[in-house]
Design a protein that fits this description.
This protein has helices spanning 4-13, 25-41, 66-75, 156-161, 168-173; strands at residues 43-44, 56-61, 80-81, 84-91, 105-108, 126-129, 141-146, 149-155, 165-166, 175-177. By secondary structure, it is of the alpha/beta class. The strands form two sheets. The protein has an eight-stranded mixed β-sheet.
């Protein structure tokens, strides 16, 4: 398991997390991809979710996420995280009605998490909102740009209501949503 010091280096001290007003989109995409990949290493999903498949499915939802999909598909898809093979799926406007494949992590560009309630179980799905999402506080984790840096928040109420376990080291690095 990664140590707190390695997490600190990744999320705080790593110069790639520093953003400026003129940051290019490619660099931002790489940082977002790194966050999504690293989050999978510090979240534990209930075992019963993997009875039919041991894959951990990352679903991107939003029209603007095609470049992030390409980056994740090329660099992360097929890699292992906590003994599970990562698979990447991109949906333009909506998740499939039957939620097949089962999305374990859903990254929302501008879509409201509330609009997904009928299609997924919010207690077992990790919802993460991009910095561009106006509804970001509806997600368990949301990214934001503050003082030129990409930071992440954990919504404690959503965490308390979920069946997900988040590693204490990751919790200690997150900004808390009040």
């Amino acid at each position: 398991m990664p140590t707190l010091y390695s997490l600190l280096a990744l999320f705080i001290l790593c110069p790639s997390t520093v953003l400026s007003e003129t940051i290019d989109k490619n660099k931002m995409l790489k940082i977002e991809a790194a966050y999504l990949y690293k989050f999978t290493k510090f979240i534990q999903w209930p075992d019963h979710l993997f009875e039919q498949s041991s894959n951990l499915n990352i679903c991107l939802l939003g029209n603007e996420l095609a470049p992030l999909n390409r980056l994740l598909s090329k660099g992360v898809s097929g890699k292992q995280s906590n003994g599970r093979t990562l698979q990447i799926y991109h949906y333009q406007t909506s998740l499939p009605q039957n939620n097949d494949p089962k999305c374990h992590l859903v990254y929302l560009d501008t879509v409201s998490a509330q609009s997904l309630e009928a299609k997924l179980n919010k207690t077992t799905t990790l919802l993460i909102s991009s910095p561009h999402n106006e509804h970001k506080t509806e997600s368990l984790i949301y990214l934001d740009i503050q003082q030129g840096k990409l930071v992440f928040f954990i919504n404690q109420q959503h965490l308390d209501d979920s069946q997900l376990d988040i590693n204490a080291a990751l919790l200690s690095l997150a900004r808390k949503h009040l």
